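Milestone 3.1: sequence recovery, worked example.
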């Protein structure tokens, strides 16, 4: 039986608001304001008061302990651990502890003492009776939700870390990027390399013709594929997956709890702006479950986050110091403690449009559960800062406003962006969440969802970020993205025929052209230009044997028409965003591909072999332009 102290002596618990008023912790005006919010938006009164800043967390939990007649332990995690019989806790998994809100603390005779951060967590009596048959009674002790999470982290440190890093690998090793190359792939690449050397030695002209033909055809197919997808996306320019009217019809009291994961590492300069942006979200604050994910060695960001004074619905999770120190590992860790029906990720520099969460809720309710995720568009608030940010903005506008909607319209796999992707939390956990060994974990997850029979959709909402304004920082970020695309291509081409059966021919072909084709396009680009410029500068006839007429025509098409298409696609990107001042910058797209993307692609190719899991940190807070408020 559950022993809740004096709860057994009374059939009706006192009201929380009355307890808080009697203790002088809140005023009549405070309770009236909170009750009005509860009437309009639903939710628990205590969390509403805390999210409004009317009451401290410790005072709230003390009042909850008085309400339910449960002893409240407020002396901190170290003191809790001093009394704990850890072997009792390890009879449960950390997932069971987090989901039940109940942690075995110590046993006294046949009485098992349990810690909880949720006084109503008494519906698992049968489960605990079966797990602890020697116990005849269960006595509850209340701790704050923060202490409960810290205690779980301390007791299950190694299990949680192992699951966050290796969970996907244990469950589905064929879908993990660790290792990057399988033995079959190494043998296949070795065979192809030796075959190429053999052909170059005995038939150099034929080998050169074959090589240049492969480069030109890859370039041509990739450009035409992206053009087709973008034109389909342009046809959706006026489409609204979620209308403003649909958002207005949502009733706040019916909205679910929404988890927001915010992974940050050494970004103290931007955390305060994020707190302001999330406070401005058009969503009941007491229904937002915000988890700030911090690394153990990053005290500067932790102090900056505390100084920003976030609302009581924010929780700080300190991740153990362990490799790989990647965003997906942090997000996996955060998913363990997520409370929401839906979940999204924002980076520290993000400024989402206020109604984005509501649009995601509408989209989920309009679509079947096979749609596991909705991707919002990303764009930049410092678009006009310098030439790099202008080029970057044109690329993102084209990518998120035309290319991804085109993929969505054609029903092809959609690689997710690193932020503002909204998930059904339950299915995200079923998919194994993110792969910490893939440095473009978002794109990988989008493909894995498709391979598992789920779909990714698009919502018409934008999150504004800080565009990279420095060349080296841009190269670091883009080389990581391209390396992740190459990792993803290797993972899902380990058994190509099996993947073909899982995805279907159309999706499989789209995956190859997009995920593998994008890096190959950037790798081929300098070769195409080098041959053309070499011939243009020298007028040499020495290359004639290597380029039969058909290959020459394809090469000219790629250089002239291919680059024209690239410029054209960047030009149409300005119209949806109405950033007409950037139109002339689109003429520089061939140089952007050559001196930005191709440089990053060759760096990514080198790192794929030399440092496959190295996560190149992108510096934020470099812009001189203030983010929008």
């Amino acid at each position: 039986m559950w022993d809740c102290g004096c709860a057994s002596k009374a059939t009706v618990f006192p009201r929380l608001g009355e307890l808080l008023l009697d203790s002088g912790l809140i005023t009549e005006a405070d309770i009236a304001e909170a009750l009005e919010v509860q009437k309009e938006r639903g939710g628990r009164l205590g969390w509403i008061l805390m999210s409004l800043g009317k009451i401290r967390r410790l005072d709230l939990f003390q009042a909850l302990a008085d309400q339910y007649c449960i002893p409240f332990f407020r002396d901190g995690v170290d003191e809790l651990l001093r009394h704990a019989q850890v072997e009792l806790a390890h009879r449960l998994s950390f997932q069971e502890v987090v989901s039940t809100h109940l942690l075995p603390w110590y046993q006294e005779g046949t009485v098992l003492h349990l810690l909880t951060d949720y006084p109503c967590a008494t519906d698992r009596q049968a489960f605990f009776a079966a797990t602890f048959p020697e116990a005849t009674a269960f006595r509850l002790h209340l701790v704050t939700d923060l202490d409960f999470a810290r205690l779980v982290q301390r007791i299950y440190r190694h299990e949680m870390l192992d699951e966050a890093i290796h969970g996907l690998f244990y469950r589905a090793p064929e879908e993990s990027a660790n290792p990057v190359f399988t033995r079959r792939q190494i043998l296949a690449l070795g065979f192809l390399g030796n075959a190429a050397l053999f052909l170059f030695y005995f038939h150099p002209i034929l080998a050169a013709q074959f090589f240049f033909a492969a480069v030109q055809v890859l370039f041509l197919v990739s450009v035409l594929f992206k053009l087709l997808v973008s034109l389909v996306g342009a046809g959706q320019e006026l489409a609204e997956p979620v209308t403003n009217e649909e958002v207005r019809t949502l009733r706040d009291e019916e909205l679910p709890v929404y988890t927001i994961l915010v992974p940050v590492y050494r970004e103290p300069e931007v955390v305060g702006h994020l707190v302001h942006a999330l406070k401005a979200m058009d969503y009941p604050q007491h229904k937002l479950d915000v988890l700030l994910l911090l690394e153990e060695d990053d005290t500067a960001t932790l102090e900056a986050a505390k100084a920003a004074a976030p609302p009581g619905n924010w929780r700080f999770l300190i991740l153990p110091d362990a490799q790989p120190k990647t965003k997906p590992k942090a997000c996996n860790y955060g998913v363990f403690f997520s409370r929401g029906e839906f979940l999204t990720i924002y980076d520290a520099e993000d400024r989402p449009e206020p109604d984005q969460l509501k649009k995601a809720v509408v989209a989920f309710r309009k679509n079947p559960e096979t749609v596991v995720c909705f991707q919002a568009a990303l764009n930049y608030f410092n678009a006009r800062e310098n030439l790099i940010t202008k080029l970057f903005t044109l690329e993102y506008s084209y990518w998120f406003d035309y290319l991804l909607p085109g993929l969505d319209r054609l029903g092809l796999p959609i690689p997710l962006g690193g932020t503002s992707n909204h998930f059904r939390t339950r299915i995200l956990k079923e998919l194994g969440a993110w792969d910490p060994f893939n440095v473009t974990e978002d794109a990988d997850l989008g493909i894995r969802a498709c391979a598992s029979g789920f779909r990714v959709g698009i919502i018409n909402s934008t999150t504004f970020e800080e565009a990279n304004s420095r060349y080296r920082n841009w190269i670091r970020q883009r080389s990581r993205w391209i390396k992740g695309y190459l990792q993803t291509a290797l993972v899902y081409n380990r058994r190509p025929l099996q993947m073909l059966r899982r995805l279907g021919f159309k999706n499989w072909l789209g995956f190859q052209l997009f995920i593998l084709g994008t890096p190959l396009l950037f790798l081929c680009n300098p070769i195409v230009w080098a041959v053309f410029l070499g011939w243009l500068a020298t007028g040499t006839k020495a290359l004639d044997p290597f380029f039969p007429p058909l290959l020459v025509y394809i090469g000219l098409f790629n250089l002239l028409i291919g680059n024209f298409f690239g410029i054209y696609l960047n030009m149409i990107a300005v119209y949806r965003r109405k950033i007409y001042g950037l139109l002339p910058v689109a003429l520089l797209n061939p140089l952007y591909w050559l001196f930005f993307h191709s440089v990053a692609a060759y760096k990514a190719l080198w790192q794929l072999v030399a440092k496959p899991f190295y996560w190149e940190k992108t510096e934020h807070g470099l812009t001189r332009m203030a983010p929008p408020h």
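DSSP finds 25 helices and twelve strands in the chain. The CA atoms of residues 41 and 252 lie 4 Å apart.
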